[in-house]
Amino acid sequence: MKSSNELRTLLRSIDHKSYPAYKSLAGAYHFGSYSLFIDHVQGDPFASPSSLHVEIAHKDAGFPAATYSRDCSRIALQDFLTRKLSSLFEDFNFKAKGSGKSGLMSITRCGQEVLERSACQITDSKIIARFHIGFPAFGRTINAGELDKILFDFLPRCVESCFFYRRLDAKKVQDTVFLAEDQAAIRELLRKENLVAFVANGAVLPRKSGVSDLPLKDSIAFTSPAAMERTFLLPHKGEIRGMAIPQGITLIVGGGYHGKSTLLEALQMGVYNHIAGDGREYVITDDTAIKLRAEDGRSIRNVDISLFINDLPNKKDTSSFSTPDASGSTSQAAGVIEGVEANTRLFLIDEDTSATNFMVRDDFMQQVISREKEPITPFLERARDLYEKAGISTILVAGSSGAFFYIADKILQMDCYRPVDITGHVKSLCQDHAAPRIQAPDFAIPGFSRALPACRRDSRDSRRGGYGGRGGRGGSSDGRDSRHEHKKIKTFGKDSFSLDKETIDMRYVEQLADSEQTNALAHLLRFGLEQVIDGKKSVRQTVQLLADLLDKQGWEPFCSSYVPCGLAKPRRQEIFACINRFRG
User: Fold this and answer.
1) Is 448 exposed, middle or buried (0-12, 13-18, 19+ CB in 10 A)?
2) What is the spatial distance between Cα 95 and Cα 273, in angstroms, rounded to a whole number?
């Protein structure tokens, strides 16, 4: 590793040269209390900024081991440091002058969720922070003096203020870790107490607007119905009270604009921890929960949807169903089966985004269109079996059909954003009305052995190693890592990404919290196509392998010559969703 003085000398030697001379700076440099790595240098000042990272040994950083000894506290501390560095960069962003992106200093902009990101990574021995810097230029001529300011003045001040415990507010660090440990304690209590979700009293569920995930000011705080209120004892906060939703079928009803969907949206994002001040810090949902909805036009491949759809007029086999253009009901049926395959324990459904004919068929319609002429078995007739025989609970928002009252274990009415337990009242009313006819055929959980077809590889793949090589990377014979070079990734926000010319549409996977998760899915899928999918492994085996590799080895196996800033860890359920939506 070179010294910082060597970097300064090299920088001065290329001043006023053509911009590509900046590439000679790539490498590692020792700055005393930390090391700086210049991973990738941009091609010109108008291109994507350069990628750098710093590494700080734990003995220098000085953080107490208790702040990162558990996964929940480590991820929370990483998130805290990322937000801190982002705030510090704001003070120096574009203070170095030049053309194009000259002077840019940026790192991930975190949302309200606490996610594990490549921007900051705490290992057993060190802290790694990855970020972007726009190398300054006059036109396309190197401006070494301005980069000297960034690397020897701005950046050291940011690193010293962010990654050394003695320079931070110890109380803020402690509060961040304690909140994460309390959230982890609630998740553990959910599993022990046979619950699927918890919403604390005082939680703020409404968001500021449709394009802002910040809490809505002066909104009505959540208050649990007395019959569903539970008190938990947390390791740091102490006693906390709120609504505990048990396993089974829970129905959320109420008039329009009274908060039904708002509650469901809070629950669907409760699979992630949230930062202090978000209002949903103690809205905790089973972390395997899946939000189901209709997805007209999505691709389905070899999915056994016979539990819901059978006896098609064209005699098409629904035990291994494929279509490039699914209808709303077919896509939602596939979503249920794929959710079971992804080992979910909870389905979240909003009637507004569901296919009506998939959800329910009223008695009059059954009289007009006989069972023999209707290939769809509605969700209404399967929800109870999904819970009792497959162990999968359902939380359903309904506003137009009372048929679900008969199968619900708990019924909540949202009244001006306040939930009221009306289970007893509704069950008494059910006695005065005929229950909907249930004519579903026998329930049987499909087998999940469908194998992914082998992907066509180009000639360069023959010289690639497996994923057990140095650092988990395959390599070419000349030592250059070329495994991923031929599949170009482009991410379009949170909604989709492309691999070469193939676009994967993720806009209806509503529990993706950040575009960096979408970007990570692109890297995971690319690795899977090139290294894992061989025509023999099942979808479950493929996802298991990818997720385990990410857990054990981090981001390195899925990236090429360096790990970029801009990746956030998705859940296994989203990896399933990504593979299931890949048309290639």
Assistant:
1) middle
2) 35
Three-class secondary structure assignment of 233-271: EECCCEEEEEEEEECCEEEEECCCCCCHHHHHHHHHHHH
What domain count does the chain have? 3
What whole-number distance in Å separates Cα of residue 475 and Cα of residue 243? 53
Q: pLDDT of 237-269, one tens digit each?
A: 999 999 999 999 999 999 988 999 999 999 999
Tokens found for residue 32: 């005393």
Domain assignment present for residue 198? The answer is no
pLDDT tens digits, one per residue of 498-521: 998 899 999 999 999 999 999 999
Nearest in space to 67 (alpha carbons), one of 77, 79, 78: 77
Nearest to 65 by CA among 127, 141, 10, 16: 127
Are 327 and 306 found together in one domain?
Answer: yes
Domain end among 401, 427, 448: 448
Q: Are 529 and 455 in contact (CB under 8 A)?
A: yes
Q: Which of 168, 190, 214 lies at the terminal end of a domain, its last residue?
A: 168
Tokens of 6: 């060597």
- For the four alpha carbons of 462, 467, 468 and 470, in that order, the dihedral sign comes to positive
Q: What is the residue range of 261's domain?
A: 247-448
DSSP-assigned letters across all residues of 435-475 = PPP--PPPP-PPP--PBPPPPP--GGGGG---TTSGGG---
Q: Write the DSSP string, 284-347.
A: EE-TT-EEE---TT--EEEE--TTTB---TT---STTEEESS--HHHHHHHHHHHHHHTT-SEE
Same domain, 284 and 392: yes
Backbone angles phi, psi at 534, to 5 degrees: -130, 10
Residue 540 has pLDDT above 60, yes or no: yes
3-class state of residue 207 by DSSP: strand
Flag whether the pTM goes above 0.90: yes
pLDDT of residue 481: 40
At 142, list the tokens: 């190197």
Contact of 248 with 82, CB cutoff 8 Å = no
**Nearest one of 359, 192, 223, 351 to 286, comparing CA atoms:** 192
**What's the CA angle centered on 331, arms 325 and 336, to 5 degrees?**
155
Same domain? For 441 and 466 the reply is: no
